[in-house]
Structures are given as structure tokens and as C-alpha cells.
Amino acid sequence: MPEEIIEPDLRICDSHHHLWDYPDSRYLVEEFLGDVGGGHKVSSTVYVECRHGWRTSGPEAMRPVGETEYVERLTKESGIDADATRVAAGIIGFADLDLGAAVVPVLSAHLDASDRFRGIRHMSAWDASERIHNAQTDPPPDLLQSSQFREGFACLSKLGLTFDAWVYHPQIPEVTDLAKAFPDTTIVLNHVGGPLGIGTYANRREEIFGIWRRHMAELSECPNVCVKLGGLTMSMSGFGWHKREILPASSELAQAMEPYYQSCIESFGPQRCMFESNFPVDRVSCSYTVLWNAFKRIARNFSATERAALFHDTAVRVYKLDV
Questions:
Q1: Which CATH number is correct for 11-318, 3.30.870.10, 3.20.20.140, 3.90.1010.10, 3.40.50.300?
Q2: Sheet with 86-93, side-by-side order of all strands
Q3: pLDDT of residue 1
Q4: In this structure, which of 138, 151, 242, 277 has its CB flanked by the most CB atoms within 10 Å?
């Protein structure tokens, strides 16, 4: 049964979503706006790279710039009307930081491709278990610690760019070390640091939660790090919602996710936390309407100022969105 929208006038910046067009999966602006049209007040969004739309020719290092060009074309007319959702008000692309200082021309090309380009994500999610899918970038286990990667990473702050970090929970200390080494670079941790609940991590939720919470508390001591509240409806979290014939209601989602998100807000504060949909990836477990209802249930006891930060203001400030 469809849910009624909770707090429909609360302004939202969806800080993390994708757009793609594959033979068996189309999710472009029309499909995304179909989800957004459920009733939540989504005024702007941040597009995050998913290795789609890359150039198919030219120098290998420059090919990811095609994704920024692609999203710029797809969303250029979005949000012209005052009440419309401005899709991809910010764009997070990919550049191979393992290029070291040679990554600068790639970053510059992204900036030239769109005035909405705000930073990069170089996925480093890796686990030794064969049952865990590592990131599409096929990262080595020590990517964030390599000298070549860090040479490239050092170029970001000079261009005013952010870094989106996608890791699994055992790797969170590596993000902490990176953040301490580069205090002038804003790091946005994706999907609350990827707490795993499948493979060798299955049936260990309480134990894993304790490890995750300790790592996150240590990371929160780095003032240059923010965290995206979302991603727990992905299958890798181990809740199994995607296997159900009838998907969960927002009340059930909120009850399961609340310990994670409340812990993040307690450690980082609302000014360094932002809710995200991670659609269409998380659509396997719930609808867009239900997901944001769950977020609103979790944030129900915060002040109006704090809710504004969690749902809109933090993302707009961190990504310097023109909205």
C-alpha cells in the first residue's frame, strides 16, 4: 500500500544518485523524476559517478571525462522552473588518482566540461572475501595508502575539489589516515562507511556494528570529513529486504537503520551529515517515497535547523551547489 508523505514541505537535496542506460536497466532523468515525483520536496541532487558515458576513444586517462559531459547534456534543462528538481546540481566524476600529479589535466577537463563539477570519487571498496564484490575500479587492498594515489589526491584541494570515499567498514581507518594526512581536502564518506552483512560478515551484526561504530567515532575527529547517511538498503548490508515479495514499509526500514544513522549524527553532528538515496541501486529494497519517509522518521526528534542540515543544507554547503 502506498505511503503518505511525511513532512512534505521539508526541502531535500538528494546528495547521491546515479543515471545510466544499459540494455537491461534504464535509469535516466525521466525515470529518476518519476521516483522523485512521489511527493517529497527534492529541490536539487548530486550525481555521483557510476562509470557510465565514458569516452570510447582518445587517451585512456581522459575517457572518464565523458561521464561529466554526458550528465551535463542529460540534465542541462533540468530545474529551469522554480519548483522543479534541479537534477545534478553537483556532479562527482572519476579520475584515476593513481596517475599521481599527471591527473591534473583530467581534473581540469572535468571542470571545463561542466561548471557543476565538484569533485571525484575513486572507489576503493575492497575485501579479501570472494563473496564480497569489490569496487568496479578493481582496487588493490592498499589503494588509499599508496604514494602514487596520494600524489594525485594532493591535487584535489588545489583545484577546490572534494573526494567521495567508497570503502567497506574494515577500511574506515584508512580513510581516517588519509583525512589526517590531507586536512585541507574535504572527504565525503559514502554509505556510512559500508558496514557489511553478507559473506563472512553474515550473522555477526552486533559484533560488526561495534567495530563500525568505533571506527566511525575515530573518523569523526577529522573535521574535514562528512558522511552520507544511506546505502543500507543495498544487498551487501545483509538485511535481505531485496529478497522479499513484499518490500518493507518505512517504519521497518527506520527501525533497522536508525542505530547506524543516529550514531553518525551523534559523532559527526548534523552539519557534517547528509541523507542520500543511492538510487537506483537501493531501489531493490524499497521505493524512493518509502526511503525518504524512513529518513524522516529517523530524524523526527531533531530541531528544524538540524533537519534542514541533514536533508538539504549540509549537502548544498559541502558541494557548493548553486541552488
A1: 3.20.20.140
A2: 11-17, 41-48, 86-93, 117-121, 162-165, 187-189, 225-229, 273-275
A3: 64
A4: 277
Dihedral angle computed from the Cα positions of residues 36, 38, 39 and 45, in that order, rounded to the nearest 10 degrees: -10
Rounded-to-integer distance, Cα 289 and Cα 4, Å: 9
The three grid cell numbers given for residue 19, joined into one nine-digit string: 543515471
For 31-85, what is each residue's pLDDT tens digit? Answer: 999 999 999 999 999 999 999 999 999 999 999 999 999 999 999 877 666 678 9
**Quick one: cell of 63?**
575517457
Helix 250-268 and helix 205-219, axial crossing angle in degrees, nearest 10: 40
Q: Which three cell numbers stand for residue 273?
A: 551529515
- Residues 222-231 have pLDDT tens digits of 999 999 999 9
The string of DSSP codes covering 245-263 is SSPPPHHHHHHHHHHHHHH
